[in-house]
Design brief:
The chain has about 220 residues and is mostly helical. It has helices at about 1-5, 15-20, 25-30, 35-40, 55-75, 80-100, 115-130, 135-150, 150-165, 195-200; strands at about 180-185, 190. Pfam families: zf-MYND.
């Protein structure tokens, strides 16, 4: 996380903006952002997770720096150029969406500066309309809700996301109850409606939780 938030400057300082957006650290975050352990890391109170509280703030600022150039690039007629800009926008907005949603309500979070939010919002909404339900489109709509503080949409989104992540229902495949849920005390990435179902899932013949459950310091 520190490598992404505070990267070492490249030898050619003119490439600083590109390096901040396209570094291997960014690729790593993009790959793990849907992992439930990343969710637990982001919401942790441990010191090792503290830098992550700045992710939304930093990502919004970087997006603002690149927004005008990337927006122009979407209309570039050269082969694959528009696609590359679309990919860059989609990945960046998706990471911002993840940071905003995972840290929603966390008092330790460094918020997105209001002035920055006001300046990038027109781009976000424009891209959301352009991409529709394609890559990056849904993330643009989600970021727009957060930046505008539209709690109704935000709460619906968070509820839907919790279900997709398996955090809103019993993890035993044959159950899926949404009542009386308690998280696994070892990994904190799945929930159960009863200790009996937790024990059954631990020894499940097809998808035993014991193969996926890992203790984490976060």
């Amino acid at each position: 996380m520190n490598g992404y938030l505070s990267p070492s400057l490249p030898a050619d300082l003119s490439l600083t903006r590109q390096y901040e957006s396209y570094s291997s650290y960014g690729a790593m975050l993009g790959g793990v952002q849907e992992n439930p352990y990343f969710f637990k890391f982001m919401t942790s109170r441990e010191k090792t997770a503290a830098p992550g509280k700045r992710l939304a703030h930093v990502q919004a600022n970087r997006l603002l720096v690149q927004a005008e150039e990337w927006d122009r690039g979407l209309d570039d007629s050269r082969e694959n150029y528009a696609y590359e800009f679309h990919t860059a926008i989609g990945n960046s907005v998706q990471l911002l969406s993840t940071a905003l949603s995972k840290l929603d309500g966390d008092p330790a979070t460094v918020p997105v500066d209001q002035a920055v939010a006001a300046r990038i919002l027109p781009y976000i909404e424009k891209w959301g309309k352009r991409f529709g339900t394609g890559f990056g489109g849904i993330a643009c709509h989600t970021v727009s809700w957060f930046l505008k503080g539209e709690r109704h949409y935000i709460d619906l989104y968070l509820l839907r996301r919790s279900k997709l992540e398996g955090l809103g229902e019993c993890a035993l495949p044959s159950c899926k109850s949404e009542k009386n849920l308690r998280a696994c005390g070892r990994c904190w990435t799945v929930c159960y409606c009863s200790s009996a179902h937790q024990e059954q899932h631990w020894r499940h013949k097809e998808v035993p939780h014991r193969q996926m459950c890992h203790f984490t310091l976060y």
